[in-house]
Amino acid sequence: MTEHPSLQPYVDAWTHSIDAIAELVQPLAHSEWNRRTECPGWSVRDVLSHIIGVETELLGDPRPIHTLPRDIYHVTDESTRHMEVQVDVRRHHTAAEMTSELEYTVIRRNRQLRNEKRTPDAKVRSVLPGGGEITLETLLRLRAFDVWVHEQDMRRALRNPGNMDSAAAYIARDILVHGLPKVVAKRAGAPNNCAVVFDVHGPLEFMRTVRVDAEGNASVNSSPSLGPAVTFTLDWETYLRLACGRVKPEAVRDRVKIEGDEELARAILANFAVTP
Fold first, then answer.
1. Integer-rounded Cα radius of gyration of the chain
2. If one looks up domain 179-270 in CATH, what number appears?
3. 3-state secondary structure of 259
4. What are the structural domain ranges in the chain?
5. What are 275's strand-pairing partners?
6. Number of alpha carbons in the 13 Å side-chain half-sphere of residue 116
7. Is the CB of residue 218 less than 8 Å from the CB of residue 247?
8. Please, are residues 261 and 197 in contact by the beta-carbon 8 Å criterion?
9. What is 105-124 written as a DSSP string?
10. Has residue 200 got a pLDDT over 90?
């Protein structure tokens, strides 16, 4: 266990997801490694390469010295270029090489996390493009979130669903819900003094209401609204895919029930993605 108990739930959630990924990829046939995921340009192999790459950087390993091909269409800026290096350098690795590196990386990270003595508010380097510092607690929460989201990317590609209500799923829910006020008030331009309800069902059920006050400031809580401007009813997987930018609203329109202001609803769905 880590020295600070408040960090342990994030470590446990990360461990559960990354172990699930290891179990998921172990029996894959060669063709399954190349299955396309909803991450632009990334296969199952590429998603795993991304996960391994981030974790090795957290271990302090140097980033690969690697020149990207010029014809990778989904690399559009410095942020995507930064992320692609760890992926492209492993693009021709065999299944055995991928699973072996994952196993070794997880062993090293587990050891590192067990010996973690820094306080939750200690400043650490962010692994996101552009760097910067965040707290250790924030880093571990985001790692649990990121690994679980990518676990689900891989599961959808492999048609092997699971863990939609795991500990990391609840962490993901809270992170995604945290972005709702900005989506509703700032990006979609919801009018002052209105409420928007999100009623989510499935393996993980919840209802959240975004309220925009008289000054245009928005907040989110679990209290119901008697007269919302819009109510969205959708399943948890669809919510996840929309909030993570994995799918366009038009592609899942039949899975989202809308009641209320259609124009506002369309604006919210068009701006629903909150992940980078």
1. 20
2. 3.30.1050.10
3. strand
4. 5-168, 179-270
5. none
6. 27
7. no
8. no
9. HHHHHHHHHHT--S-TT-EE
10. yes
